[in-house]
Automatic annotation (TrEMBL):
The keyword Transmembrane helix applies. One of its GO terms (cellular component) is plasma membrane. It comes from Pararge aegeria aegeria. The gene is jg7454. This is Jg7454 protein. Keywords: Cell membrane, Membrane, Olfaction, Receptor, Sensory transduction, Transducer, Transmembrane, Transmembrane helix.
């Protein structure tokens, strides 16, 4: 920091010297604390997901340790895990709302800094005669890339650990459980089809896929949220038979047609992906359990 004037006998010279000495360490401490704060919350989320995965993987031992009827013991343990999972989802949403703007600004500023620093790195004249300049610029560029990489890596770990919960729950021998517990497991698997992703202000996902793509600005989805977009209601897939008696309304065929129409309102059955098709199949199972 260069001062406009220099007066050693000035009244405020000592204060200016103290400020000159302290302002850089203070700025470094503030920036490092802001950076590591969101890393701490993300690591806390990963540790809680590890605990939840451990509880699901050792469900048999936890059920046997209760020394009671298997359905009742599984219901209590599964309820605790569901409450834990809901708390993790709320915690991830809180992280996204709290640090979403910071994530977005950090991504944009970091991308600009990395590009300009790389240009400066390759535009140094006589690199052999300016080794220290190369070392400083390369070190600064490396630190920026590493900070960006850690954010994306932790976000990907959260998404991967959240998505593997469905597989772990499905591996439990739930076929021998009661009908109510089967429906609860299916509902949990359907709910867990939605990935646990931290979004930067609901525009940019924090993941390794974002880090691996050069056009970070192109990844930003500037579309309006779903609640502000008017969507045309899909017509019913099949016509529901109508009659004057309740026998036709309660017939299995009529209930099956209504089930398909309810599902068709949510998903386009003819132009859906494999994940959406899996959701439709699980919805059909849930409706059949209700019937």
């Amino acid at each position: 920091m260069d001062f406009i004037f220099f007066d050693a006998n000035g009244r405020y010279f000592n204060f200016l010297c103290v400020y000159q000495i302290l302002y850089k360490p203070v700025i470094l401490l503030v920036l490092s604390s802001l950076q590591t704060m969101r890393w701490a919350f993300m690591l806390c989320t990963i540790s809680q997901l590890d605990v939840l995965i451990y509880n699901f993987e050792n469900m048999k031992e936890l059920v046997k340790a209760r020394n009671c009827e298997i359905n009742e013991a599984f219901k209590d343990e599964f309820k605790k895990n569901i409450v834990h999972h809901c708390a993790i989802i709320k915690f991830v949403d809180t992280i996204a709302r709290t640090f979403g703007g910071q994530f977005l600004l950090f991504f944009l500023i970091n991308t600009i800094i990395i590009c300009t620093t790389a240009v400066q790195f390759f535009s140094i004249p006589n690199p052999l005669n300016n080794i220290m300049d190369l070392v400083w610029i390369f070190g600064y560029l490396f630190i920026m890339i590493i900070m960006l990489y850690i954010d994306c890596y932790l976000g990907s770990i959260i998404t991967e650990k959240g998505s593997c919960l469905s597989t772990i729950v499905y591996c439990f021998p739930w076929i021998y459980l009661a009908q109510d517990m089967k429906k609860n497991i299916i509902i949990f698997i359907v709910r867990n089809q939605q990935d646990l992703v931290i979004n930067a202000s609901k525009l940019l996902p924090i993941s390794m896929a974002t880090f691996g793509k050069a056009d970070v600005l192109g990844q930003i989805n500037l579309c309006a949220p779903d609640r502000f977009v008017w969507r045309r209601r899909r017509p019913p897939l099949l016509a529901v038979p109508r009659g004057r008696t309740n026998l036709l309304n309660k017939a299995p065929l009529t209930r099956a047609i209504r089930t398909l129409n309810d599902i068709a309102e949510r998903t386009d059955l003819f132009c859906c992906t494999l994940t959406e098709l899996t959701k439709v199949a699980l919805w059909c199972i849930c409706y059949s359990c209700k019937v």
